[in-house]
Amino acid sequence: MRRQDNSPAIVFKGEKNIERVISFSDLYALVSQLVKAMERVGIGQGDRVAGFLPNLPEAIAVMLATSALGATWSSCSPDFGAQGVLDRFGQIGPKLVFSADRYYYNGKSIDCRPVISEVINNLPSAKNIVLIPYDPAKPQLGNAFGGVSLSDFIYPFEKGEINFKRLPFSHPLYILFSSGTTGVPKCIVHGAGGTLLQHLKEHYLQADVKPDDKVFFFTTLGWMMWNWLVSGLACGATILLYDGSPFYPDGNSLFDFAERTKMTHFGTSAKFIDALKNTNLKPAKTHNLSHLRTMMSTGSPLVPESYDFVYENIKPDICLSSISGGTDIVGCFVAGNPIGPVWRGEIQAPCLGMDVVVYNEGGIPVTEEKGELVCRNVFPSMPVAFWNDDKGRLYKAAYFERFPGIWCHGDYAEITKNGGIVIHGRSDATLNPGGVRIGTAEIYRQVEKLDFVEEAIAVGQEWNGDVRIVLFVRLAEGKVLDQVLTKEIENSIRSNASPRHVPARILQTIDIPRTKSGKITEIAVRDVIHGYTVRNTEALANPEALEHFRDRKELKS
């Protein structure tokens, strides 16, 4: 909130051609009204305010008003079911909840009100509910559960100056949630000062964000990249919001948005880039992307072939910054370097001020060798705490037990001879057949380059006192996994990775489960094939996909 001029602070694009531009002055004015309205209903220092919202401009305004009052913000995207929302908000007890009336995805209008009604009925802490219309021109609000519209909520209050509360450096700003595929999500509390410092460093120095730049990241309010994106306002940049499917009505949607807004920073997921590779789209030939300087990719490892695709088909002179960090630190451990080279298949550099190295099994720093990604010293955006973890036992167990006193992030990584970083997958999903540690991304890299494979997931199955690799593949439409295709998969892995990487079993599936943020859930699949209970399936975007892995006869021998 450093600016109050008439330049655009937020440019919003949603499906159904819903577009809005909000200036810095208009954003400040709305936040000032929200602050007064929230004070009227008793929101103050230490209270929790929650959003069950699509990626709307109002979501940012509500978050800013929450922080101005010294309250703590938390959010879920509207594709969560009621239980998934309650698993999160039920732990933190928000006093005030904001919800949208609906959202759009893939051309469909989805009503949010039945879910939020169920949530509110089971969330006794929520004393006030405010409904935000997705399309202000066509509100569909209703009043089934005692909610008030946003316009009525702020109506009595004039725009004016904001009296920002002055609070300690580590005062809780955000509560974010772990993916929750191994239990009820952890509630990760992040402090205001550390978060701001981390984000300013990453925006200004690692991503080269300048005032008046147009910064975009494809995200939802259920992913920490939303929190990261919002901090672009602190740099004086315009932030670009897109809500809906990135492939509706086709794969040009985000590039149309980039061209129209003169986007300078395009943030997306490795999954999106991989999906583009399977199309015939060549944005470099169809769109004017002359303003675009940086493309950021996160969510999963970006394979070398995706680097080729970006430089050949999106923009040849772009800085392709693969980044990696996560909810735990509401930022990055490794990220871009706008003044350094981009090496094919490598993240450019450790983030500034982050003592990042790779440890082998003995806790010794190594290069050009796979091991655990660790951070050996404190850094600004370490969580303040976990919610309801007064003695810090859960916090310590999550990060500091593997190597005492050293932050272990759970990424299986490698520092290259160039000083870059390759993320080979999550170490808690790392395969270990015969005592040889294998990152799942190493397998995916070879499999997903095959044109008949759409997607893959690899897990370790306990077998005869050891672990064997089981690979499930989702094939292109009309393809059936036969001996010929199986052999082709095996040969690709054997030739390009190693014989040790070749799975003991390769099986076809029609769907692969993933979290709300789009990450495949190796641990959940591993638990299913062993007959274990998968806890908190509400964290999954498509929990029904787990049934395709249950009681597979092929895994009985």
Outline the fold blueprint:
Elements: E1 8-14, E2 18-23, H1 24-40, E3 48-52, H2 57-68, E4 72-76, H3 82-92, E5 96-100, E6 102-105, E7 108-111, H4 113-121, E8 128-132, E9 148-149, H5 150-154, E10 172-177, E11 187-191, H6 192-206, E12 214-217, H7 224-230, E13 238-243, H8 253-261, E14 265-269, H9 270-277, H10 283-286, E15 294-298, H11 304-313, E16 319-322, E17 324-326, E18 331-335, E19 349-350, E20 356-359, E21 371-375, E22 385-386, H12 393-399, E23 407-415, E24 421-426, H13 440-447, E25 453-463, E26 466-475, H14 483-496, E27 505-508, H15 522-529
Parallel strand pairs: 1-13, 3-4, 3-5, 5-8, 8-9, 12-13, 12-14, 14-15, 15-16, 26-27
Antiparallel strand pairs: 1-2, 6-7, 10-11, 11-22, 17-18, 18-19, 20-21, 21-23, 23-24, 25-26
Helix pairs in contact: 1-2, 3-4
From the structure above, extract its key features.
single chain; 557 residues; alpha/beta; Rossmann fold; Luciferase, domain 3; GMP Synthetase, Chain A, domain 3; 3 domains; 7-stranded mixed β-sheet; 26% helix; 25% strand
Describe the structure.
This protein is of the alpha/beta class and 557 residues long. The protein folds into three domains: 1-6 and 19-205, ANL, N-terminal domain (Rossmann fold); 343-428, Luciferase, domain 3 (Roll); 430-555, 2-Layer Sandwich (GMP Synthetase, Chain A, domain 3), CATH 3.30.300. 26% of the residues lie in helices and 25% in strands. A seven-stranded mixed β-sheet has the order 2-1-13-12-14-15-16, sandwiched between helices. A hairpin with a 4-residue loop joins strand 17 and strand 18 (331-335). Helix 1 crosses helix 2 (57-68) and helix 3 crosses helix 4 (113-121). The chain is globular and about 70 Å long. The termini are far apart.
